[in-house]
Every structure is written in C-alpha cells, then in structure tokens.
Amino acid sequence: MEGVHFHRLARGEDSTVLSFTVPDDRCRCSREVRATTLAELQVPVKEALDGLMAEMRRKGRSCASLRVILELEDGATRELEVTAARPGVRAGTFWELLRLGLVENASAWRMSAPVAAVHLEVVRERRGFGEQGNLFGEPTSWKSREHAAKLEAAVGWLQALYGDESVVRPTLRDSHRPECQSGALPFRLPYARGESALREEDTLSPALRILNPPQPLEVRLTGRRLESFRWSGGRHRVRSQIGPRRLSGEWWNRHSYQRDYFELLTTDGGLFWAFFSPTEGKWFLQGLFD
Hints:
Layout: H1 2-10, E1 28-35, H2 38-58, E2 61-72, E3 77-88, H3 91-109, E4 115-127, H4 142-162, E5 168-172, E6 182-186, E7 208-222, E8 225-231, E9 234-249, E10 257-266, E11 271-277, E12 282-289
C-alpha cells in the first residue's frame, strides 16, 4: 500500500487537504507584580499599557477593545474587557476605562491571593490611527482634536458605567411606517475621516424628532383646514400647512394603516408633522422639527 501511495504522489494525485493557519499577531504585553490593592496595580498596569500602545503605533494599528488579565499567585485569574468609544492608541483613554472597570469589579472579584502578573491583550483592532495631521505650518485642527478627545473620554466613561445602550446614535430601519423607520445603536465616534467628531454644520439643519407611538391631538377645523391643535398642555395655532400626503402600508397583516400627513407651521414658529387617520377618524402628532 505504501508503494501505491508514493506512486500516486509521483503522479500528482495527493488527496491531502491543505489547511491554512493564520498566525495570531495580536499585540500583548505582560508585567510581573506582587500587588494586594488596586493602588499597587496602577503603576504596572500603566507601564504595560504604555508599552502596548507603543507597539500598536509601530504596527500602524489602533485598539478598539482591550482585555486585562490578572494572574493570582494561587493560579486563579480575573479578566476585564473594555471598549473605547473610538479605536485609538491613547494610553490615557484606555487607562481610565481600565481603572473604572477595576474599581467596579474589585469587590465582586474577591481576590483569593495577591496578583502575581498583569497581562494586557488587544481583542479588536483596526488599521491606522484615525488622526489627521497638517503638512504645512502650524496645525489648525489641534483644538478640534482636543474636543474630540474629551468627547471620546466622556462617551467611554458613560458606556463603561451604564453600558453601550446609555449613549446611542439614530439609525434608519427598513419600514414604511414612520415611527418604525428610526432606531438607536450604540454611539461610536467617526474613525479615520480626517475631520473633527463635532462638525458645526451638523448643528445647523433641523432634525425630525419622531414620536413613537404617535400622540393623539385635539384639533379645531375650519372646513377641511386645520385651524389649531392642542398638544403638550398648550394650544398651537396653525399659520400654514402642506398636505395631505397619503401614506398606507402593511395591508398584508392586521397592523395595516392609512394616513394623510400634513406639515404644520404654527404662529409661534413651531414646525410639526401630523396625520389624520381615516380609519379611526382621529388626528395624531407623528413628530416635530427641532
């Protein structure tokens, strides 16, 4: 059988399945210590973090998530993973997140022995730093980058304390029903765009705030024209209106709807988005522009 096997190999009939192994080149750093309190861990953890971020810079990468493993003298381990609001290589940002996590978990961990070693490893990473420099003269974006760094630290703190869902950003959803067209995702700062995370133009255009569910309105009509409506404890007089615009859908299930939408400009400068439901014979407020 061995001769037959070599004969097949000579004819190029090798049936062995090739398997490829991707090397694990994630950045890691370790420090040997002997610590019994959080204060004694600060210096070695910061030194390991500085070394790890320096290695990330050399490799042209940025860290998104970081794991710290505390190895105890009795062989037990304690693990903590933190995620930054934006991938980066600022040791200070990750140190604040690690320190906050260590303080939060110190009482629940119940250390059975002193810490003998600290291991840091990058869990998720991205290519590049996401920082834009200036080729000519004095950099003009330092102030914007300083503001972005403060925002990054604030978002990271809030999400570390209260979870990812504590700071969210709006997102679109695939639905014809207006109140179901938007949702929320955990907030993440822009990455590798060469621009400030806070742009002035983002604050100038009005934004539609959807009310889910739509709120019923008490209206006053003159013929077919909406004269005023009561909402949020006050009556709003309508100066002009655009509509109706018919919207209907989901006829294939029991949640079908049919609505006539209007954009309402009030005398006090408010801009509202309301609709009339012919099937219910009622008016509802769908949203308002901020």
